[in-house]
């Protein structure tokens, strides 16, 4: 989970992601943040995230992002 | 809906782009972005430089300039034009149609069909289908299809989601009957229930423009735009493309009795680099066969991006050789359409600057 938090903090250094929830619903991450996040997750975990998985629900919390990455066969 | 068009061809394509080139790096201060984030998105989304028409330039100006170029070069004869189809979302006026204005200013014959069609990013394919249909009539031998938009004037330059992507252009395509027996396969899908995903809320009769509609307001992403500006639900459009386009292409190729491996090029509408790469990955098509470089070079010019894509990436190759080409356009409406045809042996295929 540390890698995911590091990636998120690079994108939004002003946010404490360990204490935050509902990243999309609360406007913490916008659509272009998701683009950057997808790109960084792909690079760090050597995965290719299918475009149909790029939906708000998959990026709304640390658990959701972890589940997405694990779903591509990568250990967190 | 599956369609077959028989014995028709494209015989020339000319793209007209404004000479005014603006770089993303020079516009960064307009956006509510941290600079580091801007530079990262530049690479991912394909922001780099875009062509923006100078103030006062209208669609008819780009179209007339392009047609005059073809007349001067002897590539098109005024008397030959039996129909003029203009696909635009940014007409010179509500009334009269801009195609009529073009006809009048160029002194084209009056024995001609002129029609404006309001379509966006799928507009090249919609226009081609209309051209093919008109050519069924014995008296119509040559159709000039023009796709042109000056959307830079309808998008807030403080909208970081949209303004960096946009570009202005016109593209002129000559469509004729093909002496060689041939089939062009096409399909399309319309979903008006999601029409609000791409909308200019004010300026039509539903919500006329006022001093209030012209006020800039900040959205939840930190973009500033007014109700007179184009607004896009990025998530909705992204999902529409990634979910609806791949099966549309599979259906087209199945209908045509062929496979992706038999297609030389996938010349698709160019929304942004990220979306196109994801689409290519999903379709298992190489980036070489599906170019994604138009936004970074010229900007997304709506219905004109497909012909700009063809003229920029294939250019003079199409004068000598022919290629099995799959076109696809997707956008406002929401509309998506795809087409399989052979393009080649063109009389011209080039880009000029206005």
Which key features would you list for this structure?
heterodimer, A: 76 residues, mainly alpha, 3 helices, B: 354 residues, alpha/beta, 6-stranded mixed beta sheet, 5-stranded mixed beta sheet, 29% helix
Architecture overview:
The complex is a heterodimer of chains A (76) and B (354). By secondary structure, chain A is mainly α. In chain A, 46% of the residues lie in helices and 0% in strands. In chain A, α1 (2-11) packs across α2 (31-45). The termini of chain A are close together. The model of chain A has no long low-confidence stretch (mean pLDDT 90). Chain B has 354 residues and is α/β, with parallel strands linked by helices. In chain B, 29% of the residues lie in helices and 27% in strands. Chain B contains 10 helices and 17 strands. Chain B has a 6-stranded mixed β-sheet, with helices on both faces. In chain B, strands 1-9-16-15-14 form a 5-stranded mixed β-sheet, with helices on both faces. In chain B, α3 runs parallel beside α4. Chain B is globular and about 55 Å long. The two termini of chain B are 38 Å apart. The A-B interface holds A 11, 27, 30-32, 35-36, 39, 48, 50-52, 54-56 and B 37, 40-41, 44-45, 160-161, 220-222, 234-235, 238-239, 241-243, 274-275, 278-279, 281-282.
């Amino acid at each position: 989970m540390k890698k995911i938090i590091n990636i998120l903090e690079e994108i939004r250094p002003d946010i404490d992601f360990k204490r935050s929830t509902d990243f999309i619903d609360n406007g913490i991450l916008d659509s272009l943040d998701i683009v950057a996040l997808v790109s960084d997750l792909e690079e760090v975990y050597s995965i290719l995230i299918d475009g149909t998985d790029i939906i708000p629900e998959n990026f709304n919390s640390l658990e959701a992002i972890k589940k997405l990455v694990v779903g591509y066969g990568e250990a967190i | 809906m599956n369609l077959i068009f028989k014995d028709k061809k494209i015989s020339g394509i000319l793209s007209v782009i404004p000479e005014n080139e603006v770089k993303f790096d020079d516009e960064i201060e307009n956006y509510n972005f941290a600079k580091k984030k801007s530079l990262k998105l530049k690479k991912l989304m394909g922001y780099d430089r875009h062509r923006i028409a100078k103030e006062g330039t209208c669609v008819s100006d780009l179209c007339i300039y392009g047609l005059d170029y073809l007349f001067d070069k002897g590539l098109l004869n005024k008397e030959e034009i039996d129909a003029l189809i203009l696909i635009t979302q940014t007409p010179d006026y509500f009334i009269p149609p801009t195609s009529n204005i073009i006809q009048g200013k160029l002194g084209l014959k009056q024995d001609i069909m002129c029609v404006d069609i309001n379509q966006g990013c799928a507009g090249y394919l919609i226009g081609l289908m209309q051209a093919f249909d008109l050519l069924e009539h014995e008296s119509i031998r040559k159709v000039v299809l023009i796709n042109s938009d000056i959307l830079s004037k309808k998008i807030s330059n403080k909208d970081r989601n949209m303004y960096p992507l946009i570009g202005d252009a016109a593209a002129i395509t000559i469509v004729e009957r093909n002496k060689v027996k041939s089939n062009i396969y096409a399909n399309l899908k319309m979903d008006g229930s999601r029409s609000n995903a791409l909308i200019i809320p004010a300026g039509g009769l539903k919500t006329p423009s006022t001093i209030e509609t012209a006020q800039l307001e900040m959205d939840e992403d930190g973009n500033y735009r007014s109700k007179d500006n184009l607004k896009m639900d990025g998530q909705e459009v992204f999902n529409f493309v990634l979910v609806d386009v791949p099966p549309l292409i599979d259906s087209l190729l199945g209908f045509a009795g062929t496979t992706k491996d038999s297609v030389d090029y996938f010349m698709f509408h160019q929304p942004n680099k990220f979306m196109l790469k994801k689409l290519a990955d999903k379709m298992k098509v190489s980036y070489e066969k599906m170019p994604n470089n138009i936004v970074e070079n010229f900007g997304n010019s709506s219905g004109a991006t497909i012909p700009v894509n063809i003229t920029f990436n294939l250019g003079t190759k199409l004068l000598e050789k022919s290629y099995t080409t799959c076109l696809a356009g997707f956008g406002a409406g929401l509309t998506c359409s795809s087409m399989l045809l052979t393009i080649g042996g063109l009389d011209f295929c080039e880009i000029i600057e206005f």
